[in-house]
User: What shape does this take?
Amino acid sequence: HVKSRGKNGFAFYDGSLSIPLHHRADMERLLRNALDKGEFELHYQPQIHLGGPRVDGLEALIRWNSPELGRVAPDEFIRIAEETQLIVPIGEWVLRTACQFIRAIHENGNEKPMISVNVSVVQLIGQRYVERVLDILRETGLEPRYLELEITESMVIESLDLIADKLRRLREQGVNIALDDFGRGFSSLSHLMRLPITTLKIDKSFIEQIPDSMDIQPLTGLIIRLAQGMGLKVIAEGVETYFQLDYLKKYECDCIQGYLFSKPLTAIMAREWVKTVSLPIT
Ligand code: C2E
Ligand code: MG
Ligand code: MG
Ligand code: MG
Assistant: This one.
């Protein structure tokens, strides 16, 4: 059924998802002003290093609080932001805000967790991307080794050489590069080896199969071994159960990210979490 959404248009409720699928033109129009109107917010999800255990990093995840549309999930608007190039200014705002946030954490505590920021291919192939990142690092006073940029494999295939070159220049300055969502779709080791990546993030579609599939279990372990053999840090995404945690510990996965430890938190909550959390996982 179709539900009216005031004078701005309609929200279509898809029976299977119960997510309102807003009229594309509406969303695009509202997205154009969202940055200036201060409607974006970053949430931060902790990444726990099992060796400590300690907070190794925090992933910045964008939230859009639209007065007209309500809370819009990134999966609903990032694609439109990419198609309209709006992702370029939005992505710069994300990077600057995330760098400022982690600087504040470093200044107020003993721990120095990293900040991970998702990057779109549209940003990467854009003009002067490397320079823009380095400018923001200088401007916020964050050392490059505390920044990790997350890229996804599906997006790099089209312009692999250009992207590999830009990432290499960032890597030379000390920025860390993570391959996000590994194993979600088509994954190619030869692509992987042409990119200067430092971290592999195993997609939650793999992790969620741990409890009930004997086939996936050894494969996940194998990916961990293989990645570590290449000198990469491995992060498991979407860890929700102690069973999954035990399994990942057994295979010596470096880091865990998921609802088991924490959902993405507001900046204030995340700061508090880093300061006060005690991890019951040794
Ligand atoms: P991602 O980079 O793979 O981020 C992880 C997503 O998994 C987040 O969804 C997070 O909330 C969710 N997640 C974390 N732990 C669990 C868990 O235990 N179980 C389940 N079911 N989910 C978990 P979110 O925040 O909705 O973001 C979705 C995607 O949107 C991100 O996937 C990323 O690709 C994109 N995104 C988010 N923020 C940005 C941004 O600032 N820039 C760009 N370009 N993309 C972004
Ligand atoms: Mg990510
Ligand atoms: Mg991502
Ligand atoms: Mg991911």
Q: What stands out?
A: The radius of gyration is 19 Å. The chain has a mean pLDDT of 88. Residues 180-181, 201, 203, 237 surround magnesium ion (ligand 4) (CB under 6 Å).
